[in-house]
Amino acid sequence: MTSPSAVNPIPSAAPPLSDPELIHQLEALRDYLLAFEADCVDWLTPVHPQYRDSARNLLHFIAFHRHDHPGLQRQLRERGLSSLEGCDGHLLASLNAVITRLAAADPPPPVASPSHGRAVDLLRRHCKQLFGEAATGQGNAIMVTLPAEAAQRPALIHELVEAGMGIARINCAHDDRQVWDALVAAVRSASLACDRPCRVSMDLAGPKLRTGPLPEEPGVVNARPRRDRYGRLLQPALILAVTSGQEPDEIEAGITLLPVLKLPEAGQEPALASGDRFSGRDASGRVRELTVVERRPEGLLLGCRQHCRFTEGLRFRREGGGGELEVAALPPCAGELLLQVGDTLELTAVAESAPAARGRRAISCTLPEVFSLLRTGERVLFDDGKLGGVIRRVNAQAVTIEITETKPRGTRLRADRGINFPDSDLQLPALTARDREDLGFATARADIVNYSFVSRDSDVQALQRELEQLGAGRMGVVLKIETHQAFANLPRLLLTAMRQPQPLGVMIARGDLAVECGWEALGAIQEEILRLCAAAHVPCIWATQVLEEMARHGIPTRAEISDAALGARADALMLNKGPNITATVRSLRQIAAGSLSGQPEHPSHRDRLVSCLSFRRTCPGSGQR
Fold it and tell me: Nearest CA to 265 among 295, 238, 288, 235?
């Protein structure tokens, strides 16, 4: 039996064909599509009747792209006929229509293939089943990843629902069930209060490979002066020295809080006055002078003209005698490793309990069982590809990696950062023991479960069995495509998932996909996933870094506006959390609505077109004819 897979055709020049020759080639193509469907009968037969037409069209789409037909689409365009581009959802019906038009003959006998209208209806129905009423209005459904703090700020969720959030996403890789429960309750309450539909989706964590903990490092307080672009001093660094344990709850903006063991007493001689100086070496070993600005009830305000780094135990003595300031204990900092090209990193099975010996760089892995599946020469990527290396040695206890890719001045690696092995076939089951526990919570409270790191049809079957056992066989499932194995196996994953009548969707997890498959290939990959989903009439979610700059800093870049407009071809778009997320939801609604208004019948499109034509008639030099 043929295994479903999508292969792009190889373009090449072809001589012009006569109409009879072209008809013969189109009929041969149709026969190939039907033969491929018959050859895949073992995949098609188990599909649930609800998805039978969609699965059949998916097989036609795959066969079309496996068939060698160079120049065919160009010759169809030259005759003013459909080139079959954009017919992914109704391929065989469109092919039959082209043959009929070209032959000017009676239509061929009907075949079980959705027409254009039927394909549109199927996709609309599947979107409504998965996304609910959020998918029935104009534009795309908007999914938003909820931050943990929203559990304590239900007003934020209320704002998001009012702004247009149609799906609230909770990531089970973070926080705990108490937080998740509060988030779900807040979403349900906000949806009811706003009279707007909003579904809840929960991401299963999956077998995510991450860096383990690093030993904590001594705490540090940084105080920086303000300078202009030429390095000229605008304002000294302001430091409020306070007695340790008596820190104020709030301090003014621009002032750095520094706990010390003891402050100079107000009545001691010589009296402390504005302009007096304390001097000593900071954590970098450089001499720094701290100038008294004023004494305040809560402490001593100091100024420093240089960047000063304070760590526990540093002492700054008053010039001329009369006291000193000793830095008190500071909260420890999270550990990190600064790595540069050529460095050696050990990925270990056991977390480091103490700082590594000088010159040795090591960090643990959350899933050391994959070590036995790795081979020398394979690549390793950390933190979404910000750091890269090659495996030089591997055993059950450690993997020795030569660092080959960093920023020019090095890259810092911290705990809980993602690890990718793009060249390795890890064969890890997507459904972990923790996922099975979280699934019980998700089926009781959420509407959709997002399946992380699914890559094989056996993964899909495992999830469906678990949902059946929980009595949630009709729960919506979204397959997250985030590895090169998942992308290569996407037709098999879809056909396997279609064996059950549950609502089905696909998420293009572009962050991990780009790391796994290479940034250069991402454009073609996300395009092919969109087309495969269109062929299968399966809702598709455009995810990762959508309007991320706007969510974080309030102003979008031109590139991400274009990206969001391109993503509007999907049926839903996903936003990640950020301090400006509510405004970002509103902007995304406008961008998506504008992108979908390319149809001539849309009023806003007509208005813009009329305005453009009017400008051309009235602009200088246009002339009147």
Answer: 295
pLDDT digits (tens, 9 = 90+) for 233-290: 999 999 999 999 888 888 888 999 999 998 887 666 677 888 999 999 999 999 999 9
Torsion of CA 145, 148, 154, 157, to 10 degrees: -10
pLDDT tens track for 597-610: 544 444 444 454 44
> E strand or H helix at 589, and its extent?
helix 581-595
DSSP 540-573: EEEESSTTHHHHHHS---HHHHHHHHHHTTSSEE
Instruction: Return the residue matching tokens 């239509």.
Output: 107
User: How many other C-beta atoms lie within 10 A of the C-beta of residue 61?
Assistant: 24
Sheet with 344-348: strands ordered across: 362-364, 344-348, 398-405, 387-394, 379-382, 419-420
What is the maximum span of the chain, computed from C-alpha positions, in angstroms?
111
d(CA 242, CA 264): 11
Q: Identify the burial level of 10 via C-beta atoms within 10 angstroms of its C-beta, where 0-12 means exposed, 13-18 middle and 19 or more buried.
A: exposed
Write the DSSP string, 225-283: -EE-TT--EEEPEEEEEEETT---S---TTEEEEEES-PPPTT-SSPP-TT-EEEEE-T
β-pairing, 308-310 vs 221-223, is: antiparallel
**Entry pTM:** 0.82
Residue 344 burial (CB count, 10 A):
16
- Torsions phi, psi for 9 (to 5 deg): -70, 155
Q: What are the beta bridge partners of residue 235? A: 226
The one-letter code for the residue type at 20 is: P
Q: How many Å apart are CA 315 and CA 326, to the nearest integer? A: 4
Burial of 405 (0-12, 13-18, 19+ CB in 10 A): middle
